[in-house]
Structures are given as C-alpha cells and as structure tokens.
Design goal:
Length: 158
C-alpha cells in the first residue's frame, strides 16, 4: 500500500502545484478566496517533493485563473505549475514565469519615490535582480523589494 499522502482529484477547476512550502495560504489570498464562497478547495502543505524538498498544493473546483493572478503567484511561488482540469483530466499545464520587468502589480517601498506621488500618475516598474531569493529594484528610485515585501503587499499586510 502506498504511504503517500493522497488528496482527492478534482473534476473541473485549477490545481496550483509546486508552490514553495508554507505559501499555500498566500496563494489563496491572491485568488481572493476565503472558503466562504462555497467552492470545493483542497490545501496541502509541506508535503515532500522531488523538485523542491517540500511543497504546497492548492486545488480549487470551478475556477480558472486570470492573468494578473498568475503573475502574482509567480512572484511568491516561482516554481508553481498551474494545471487546468476538465472532466478529471489535466488539459493544460503551465509553469509560471517571473517576467524580467514587473509593471503595475506592486508599489514601491520608498514613500518618496515618484511612483508614490499622487500628482504624478506614474506606474511603478521593477526589474528582477535576483530570482531566489526574489529581489526587485524600482526603476525610478532604486529601492529594493524583497520576498517579504511582496508577500505583504499581496496579502494585505503592507
Ligand atoms: N490533479 C487533481 N485532479 C485531477 C487531475 C490532477 O487534483 N483530476 C492534480 C494532481 O494531484 C497533481 C496536479 O493536479 O497535483 C498535476 O497533475 P498531473 O499532471 O497528473 O501530475 P504530475 O505529472 O505529477 O505533475 P507534474 O509533472 O507537474 O509534477
Ligand atoms: Zn521607487
């Protein structure tokens, strides 16, 4: 008998797999899900993974992700794969990708940055300077955003 932890397959929806261990709840926050929507959701945390050592998985029945949600997930779980499930089969699998430049999704941490001035309608723009650990640099003022800053902004903590 297999000693693997098994969670039911889903019929229709999205499985976000290979999430960095411990970040499944951040992914749910990005998706705006609390559980009170009534959707079937399975969350698996800190299970062994060949690729990552440990990983989290989020399965949600009945939804497909928007592009901005996929882009945000990439910034907190750069190894994640998004699997679209129809009639119990994986019909599409995409690995998220951290773009070289990030526009509009994040705010600069420097309050004096021109992108934070209400009179200057300038979209914040960042360049990726390191992937693991993730580090972004503001193209306007050079301020650095680290993984914790990004998580805080996406989960409402900052
Ligand atoms: N899955 C699911 N319900 C389904 C089909 C798949 O919950 N009806 C889940 C699987 O449990 C797995 C993920 O979707 O977590 C991807 O499925 P699959 O591609 O079959 O697994 P792997 O080949 O192990 O994926 P990978 O190569 O991306 O590791
Ligand atoms: Zn800035």
């Amino acid at each position: 008998m297999s000693r693997e932890l098994r969670v039911s397959k889903i019929r229709e929806g999205t499985v976000i797999d290979h999430i960095d261990a411990g970040r499944a709840l951040h992914v749910l926050r990005i998706l705006g899900l609390t559980g009170s929507e009534g959707l079937v959701i399975a969350i698996v945390m800190n299970v062994p993974s060949k690729k990552l050592g440990r990983k989290d998985i989020v399965k949600v029945e009945g939804i497909e992700l928007r592009e901005d949600q996929v882009n945000k997930i990439a910034l907190i779980a750069p190894s994640a794969t998004i699997n679209i499930i129809r009639d119990y089969e994986v019909v599409e699998k995409v690995r998220v990708k951290v773009p070289e430049r990030i526009e509009g999704l994040l705010r600069c941490v420097n309050p004096n940055c021109i992108t934070n001035q209400p009179r200057e309608p300038i979209k914040p723009r960042f360049r990726v300077v390191s992937l693991r650990p993730l580090k972004l640099v503001c193209e306007y003022c050079g301020a650095e955003l680290g993984q914790e800053d990004i998580i805080a902004q996406f989960t409402g903590g900052g």
